Amino acid sequence: xxxxxxxxxxxxxxxxxxxxxxxxxxxxxxxxxxxxxxxxxxxxxxxxxxxxxxxxxxxxxxxxxxxxxxxxxxxxxxxxxxxxxxxxxxxxxxxxxxxxxxxxxxxxxxxxxxxxxxxxxxxxxxxxxxxxxxxxxxxxxxxxxxxxxxxxxxxxxxxx
Length: 160
Known about the structure:
The protein has helices spanning 2-21, 30-47, 50-55, 76-86; strands spanning 64-66, 73-74, 94-106, 110-122, 129-143, 146-156. It is an alpha+beta fold. The protein has one domain: Nuclear Transport Factor 2, Chain: A (Roll), CATH 3.10.450.50. The protein starts with a helix and ends with a strand.
């Protein structure tokens, strides 16, 4: 009898311990949260939604951006000016997609996302399309519970 009680207690203890250690099914992993920031970045560009785009970046002097075929932009005010220039296309003329995303988690709530974008541009007058492929690297930090882009870099894929 005593061994049955002890056995039952051990089973209950192990069950409680395993439930305590198991992550919540509804909680997104840090990698999923970082990927969601990138998906929101794509959504913002596809919709030409400057408000959404600007909400994804840390608004600080240390924030930087190195867009394809352009200069390094340092500081939130400079990045804002660059983004406004890029947001002059009519909504729906650009279709961005993300491919092969890789996320590397670093200490201090920092993550690096790498991958590549395929960008299809459609001329609104002729409906002619051009396709570009860009490598992308984003450095993100979780600040006050929110993942924000602190640096991004893009470059064209080499033409074979």
